[in-house]
Write a structure and sequence with these properties.
alpha/beta, 2 domains, TIM Barrel, disordered N terminus, 434 residues, eight-stranded mixed beta sheet, 33% helix, 20% strand, 19 strands
Length: 434
């Protein structure tokens, strides 16, 4: 089986960290024609399960899917006939280019951009190996580190998922996107305040700056946050005027906007301003969910990590403010998720990986089924539906023309959704990862 050959990886990652050109030898891969035999095939866009199907891969794309027969001449065979094969999974809410949550409020500032990039490279690798071949990375304290990591992965300098990145958080001063409680915010490093905006004009200018510097979409902070000192999840932050200014600039350039928003008023402000999706939606009430359905707004609800924060955060001594806010939002968010499923609101798979360890992204599937989804709905939320939320037609499905991104598992995830927590094989762009 083909594998990516990483040569000079340490030098490549060091180049990433310090912003230098990548070594020319970063990735060498042989993209010959491949014939992949599947046992059960879930395509990510339909509710049917096909059997005895073979996928023909040319270079990094799917050429066709057909009933298995004699291997075409000149094709390399990958025999996954004992496995369920699915599209590579997509996580719509990750923080690869960051240190991860801990009890140390100052940790993001203590880490240099170089160290942050090195940690991001590790996070990217374990995420890919866990079967998540695409992610939407929704912000980093060290602004634009995610852009650098995305570019390094695209060049082949380091292994990782396809990344669509926000560049930085668009937030009010001392809001939910700031590193509060460490030093006076005005003394934070400039790259940690790239998205701070106090007026609609500043919000528009910051949006332009981030898009000009490589952001794929825009992440706004419409309410306070659970994991930010001095902010409350139910309290609106960016004003309707600021949100409209951001959306106007981004949409004019064909870019989507998502909004971190826990509280109902903040969610409604964001939806009415025209954002494309809402992160968390923890305190969404009936009227808010109905508004999301009316506008076709997507919800990206991280309904696993409340358990992790409560258990690990308590054990490790995370700030009591964090733990309190987590307790106040976890059950409410799960109830809102269940109601959103009942109403048929658009929902994509989103975990907030980085709050809990990268590589464990699939732990959320069990909760999505527990709180109202069928196993197939949960799978599609992380494949075809997630691609739809991002506006992508090149990932998320096993159909001709899309990237040859696949995962294979021995167990049947439609019988036991927890099977996706242990992926047996991963392929990205026609190259076997594991």
């Amino acid at each position: 089986m083909r594998r990516v050959r990483q040569r000079g990886l340490i030098a490549a990652v060091a180049a990433l960290a310090f912003g230098q050109p990548a070594p020319a030898t970063a990735q060498q891969a042989d993209y010959g024609p491949q014939y992949i035999r599947t046992g059960r095939l879930i395509d990510g866009v339909s509710d049917t399960v096909q059997v005895n199907q073979c996928i023909i891969v040319m270079h990094d794309r799917i050429e066709r899917i057909e009933r298995c027969g004699q291997t075409p001449r000149g094709m390399h065979v990958i025999d996954w006939s004992a496995y369920t094969v699915l599209p590579g999974l997509i996580d719509l809410h990750t923080h690869l280019a960051d240190l991860g949550q801990s009890a140390d409020l100052a940790a993001p500032m203590k880490a240099s951009p170089a160290e942050t990039a090195l940690v991001g490279a590790r996070n990217a690798r374990v995420t890919l190996e866990a079967g998540f071949t695409s992610v939407r990375d929704v912000g980093t304290y060290r602004g634009l580190t995610d852009v650098t990591l995305r570019n390094a992965i695209e060049r082949g300098d380091v292994p990782g998922p396809r990344m669509w990145v926000a560049g930085a958080y668009l937030t009010i001063p001392k809001g939910g996107g700031e590193l509060n409680g460490v030093v006076p915010n005005e003394q934070l490093p400039p790259d940690m305040r790239l998205g701070v905006a106090a007026t609609p004009e500043e919000a528009a200018a910051k949006t332009t700056y981030l898009l000009d510097h490589g952001a794929d979409f825009i992440k706004t902070i419409a309410t306070g946050a659970v994991l930010a000192i001095g902010t409350e999840p139910g309290a609106p932050e960016l004003t309707p005027e600021q949100l409209r200014a951001i959306v106007k600039v981004a949409h004019a350039r064909g870019k989507k906007v998502t909004a971190h928003a826990h509280g109902a008023i903040g969610i409604q402000n964001a939806i009415n301003a025209g954002v494309d999706s809402i992160e968390h939606a923890s305190l969404a009430d009936e009227a808010t969910l109905q508004l999301a359905k009316k506008h076709g707004t997507w919800l990206a609800m991280d309904i696993y990590n409340g358990t992790y924060i409560d258990e690990v955060g308590t054990k490790e001594g995370w700030p009591e403010e964090y733990l309190r806010k987590n307790r106040e939002t976890t059950d409410a968010q799960r109830a809102a998720f269940r109601r959103a499923v009942e109403l048929g609101v658009n929902i994509g798979y989103a975990t907030d990986a980085g709050v809990y360890p990268h590589g464990l992204n699939a732990r959320q599937f069990r909760n999505m089924v527990k709180y109202g989804m069928t196993p197939m709905q949960a799978i599609r939320s992380a494949t075809g539906r997630a691609a739809e939320e991002m506006g992508r037609t090149d990932v998320g499905a096993i159909v001709p023309g899309r990237y040859a991104d696949f995962v294979a598992v021995k167990a049947d995830p439609l019988t036991d959704i927890g099977a996706l927590e242990t992926i047996d094989h991963v392929m990205k762009g026609g190259v076997l990862v594991r």
